[in-house]
Automatic annotation (TrEMBL):
Membrane-spanning parts: 126-145, 180-197
Protein's recorded name: Transmembrane protein
Pfam families with a match to the protein in the record: DUF6766 (PF20554)
Family matches, as InterPro entries: DUF6766 (IPR046657)
The organism's taxonomic lineage, starting at the top: Bacteria, Pseudomonadati, Pseudomonadota, Gammaproteobacteria, Lysobacterales
Keywords: Membrane, Transmembrane, Transmembrane helix
Origin: domain of life: Bacteria
Length: 217
């Protein structure tokens, strides 16, 4: 009797759990962020925002996409840099010497079969996707921060600032750089620590018995 196919959970458990954590954290962010923002508005004798109003406010949009922007920048650069750069001994690096990579049997994706332009785009589709996600998140972060800044200006009875002027505002770039540096730190720590440290059965780690000098899994 042939073995039964893995269950849906077995096949997709990692993405299901990660998306569940994402939704739980997002709900927590919305609840606490709205509470903080409405408290600030009440201090200025302004009415509290309903949930639907808060979800379109600059406060929420800026805070959300400020973080998404840095994540997509981190992963996009990581994907591109690991194409040509190596770190001896790191589980996150490809081997120093090129070797054939095993491809499991099965039908190739259709762009590979189509060849030409479609294959060329498919060969770079991961970095292209991260680049587009970063660009969209950066734009939404910029617009959200601009709207949040002008809302704060209105609370103080001061005139709004145009978008072109806000692009050069130090606060906006402070929000971006503080997230970017933490993402680069996290990736660098993962690359370097996997030279000497192990996590049994994790694909992000080399085998426990592997020497420190071994590069890649």
């Amino acid at each position: 009797m042939p073995p039964s196919a893995p269950s849906f959970w077995r096949r997709n458990g990692l993405s299901i759990v990660l998306l569940t954590f994402l939704l739980a954290a997002l709900v927590g962010q919305i609840a606490t962020g709205r509470s903080v923002y409405n408290a600030e508005r009440l201090e200025h004798h302004l009415p509290a925002l309903a949930l639907s109003q808060y979800l379109t406010s600059g406060h929420f949009v800026s805070a959300t996409f400020e973080n998404w922007e840095s994540e997509f920048l981190q992963m996009g650069l990581y994907v591109l840099l690991t194409v040509s750069l190596r770190q001896k001994g790191s589980a996150e690096s490809r081997p120093l010497e090129p070797r054939s990579e095993r491809i499991e049997p099965g039908p190739a994706p259709w762009p590979v079969k189509a060849g030409g332009l479609w294959r060329g785009l498919y060969e770079r589709s991961l970095s292209i996707a991260f680049g587009l996600l970063f660009a969209a998140s950066f734009a939404l972060h910029l617009c959200g921060s601009w709207r949040a800044h002008n809302a704060e200006q209105a609370m103080k009875g001061e005139p709004p600032v145009g978008l072109a002027a806000f692009v050069g505002d130090a606060q906006f770039w402070f929000e971006s750089f503080q997230n970017w540096q933490s993402e680069f730190l996290a990736v660098a720590a993962l690359v370097i620590l996997t030279i000497w440290l192990r996590q049994k059965d994790s694909p992000q780690s080399k085998p426990v018995e592997a020497p420190h000098s071994q590069t890649g899994a």
